[in-house]
Design goal:
- With 352 residues, the chain is an alpha/beta fold.
- Helices cover 37% and strands 17% of the residues.
- The chain has eleven helices and eight strands.
- It has an eight-stranded mixed β-sheet, sandwiched between helices.
- α9 (303-312) links the parallel β7 (291-297) and β8 (318-323).
- α3 (130-145) packs across α4.
- The radius of gyration is 21 Å and the shape is globular.
Length: 352
């Protein structure tokens, strides 16, 4: 009896703690952010949608900044889509273009800046994390699920470039995500740990990377600041690979440059690579039961990452779309290449 009493008391204490933690959830407050109210996007403002700045927080307490787009003729509860990426970009670039375009097509959309970047909060600045950046998508779902103008049973996400892989990672962990699109996706963990086309997939190369990055940690701690990895190379060497030239043409020119974009400027903190090197994403992508669509350009250097990820997916609600003639960055902002008709049709089918 005494043992049973002790166990019962322990269970009661656990339950009481759980209740207390739940009740405290209403005390969470968003960090106050300084949000730009002017239209400073890299694409023109649409007259078919309403636009407003909003904030929400993730479960680590970081407040995220977002642009909310709604169709002007919207009524009732709408299907909603949270959008982020590319990796090192801001919501004023490709993710905002995707969000605004999908809002023109009848969806409520949310383009957000990841934690520690853009107008979002969090310190230190310019940190990337496979865990926190995956969490950012689920935090967006938290926010959308509690809006009166959103149907919580019809929420999808869309990730571009590195956030395409993170979106699939989020879908593996969050069944509330009913449909996921990964456009021109990177598997950031694979790319860091193995190099492009897996050319550095060996223990010695990873050891050397760890040695350098951990030495950088010592220097950062000593200096009290974080060294930056550098954004897109500028100027571009004549013998640079075509995809590097394509990145420059987007991030470093009027076409896609933005003052808050890491890729347009000094890049992520160097040591951000450590967590991706040691914590691979997509381990459970094969267990995703809801719908996933992988979109890639025929000529994209990153196409192999999307195709290999697609091979892991199971079920008859998974789709792979290869866009003829498109490069990786064509799917950032080229409206003649981004297959919005197919993306819309996918969301219509699975957000119903």
């Amino acid at each position: 009896m005494k043992i049973k009493t002790i166990i019962a008391a322990a269970l009661l204490a656990t339950a009481t703690t759980a209740v207390a933690q739940t009740s405290n959830s209403t005390d969470m407050t968003d960090e106050k952010l300084n949000l730009t109210q002017e239209w400073d996007k890299t694409f023109p403002e649409s007259d078919k949608v309403n636009h407003v700045k909003v904030t929400f927080h993730n479960r680590y307490g970081v407040t995220l900044a977002a642009d909310l787009y709604t169709p002007k003729d919207a009524n009732g509860q709408l299907p909603a889509i949270a959008v982020s990426g590319p990796f090192g970009a801001v919501k004023e670039q490709a993710s905002g273009l995707y969000a605004q375009t999908l809002a023109e097509r009848g969806f409520l959309t949310l383009a957000f800046d990841p934690s520690f970047t853009g107008e979002s909060g969090g310190s230190p600045r310019y940190v990337a994390s496979p865990d926190i950046n995956t969490e950012d998508f689920s935090a967006a779902v938290d926010y959308l699920s509690t809006r009166q103008d959103v149907d919580p049973e019809r929420i999808g996400i869309l990730g571009i470039c590195g956030f395409g892989g993170l979106a699939i990672n989020a879908a593996a962990n969050d069944p509330r995500v009913k449909a996921t699109v990964a456009s021109t996706m990177y598997d950031i963990s694979r790319n860091i740990a193995k190099g492009y086309f897996d050319a550095n997939d060996n223990a010695d190369a990873r050891y050397e990377m760890r040695r350098q990055l951990n030495a950088q940690r010592t220097e950062d701690y000593r200096s009290g600041s974080y060294a930056r990895a550098g954004g897109v190379v500028d100027p571009v060497p004549a013998d640079a690979p075509q995809f590097v030239k394509d990145y420059h043409a987007y991030y470093k020119t009027k076409r896609g440059y933005h003052k808050r974009s890491l890729n347009s400027n000094e890049g992520w903190n160097k040591t951000s690579a450590l967590s991706f090197l040691n914590m691979p994403i997509l381990a459970y992508s094969g267990e995703i039961r809801n719908a996933v669509m992988v979109v890639h350009g025929e000529k994209a250097h990153s196409r192999y990452m999307g195709e290999d990820t697609f091979k892991r997916l199971t079920g008859d609600n998974k789709k792979l779309l290869i866009v003829p003639g498109a490069s990786h960055t064509d799917l950032y902002d080229n409206l003649e290449k981004i297959p919005f008709d197919d993306i819309e049709a996918f969301y219509r089918e699975f957000l119903k």
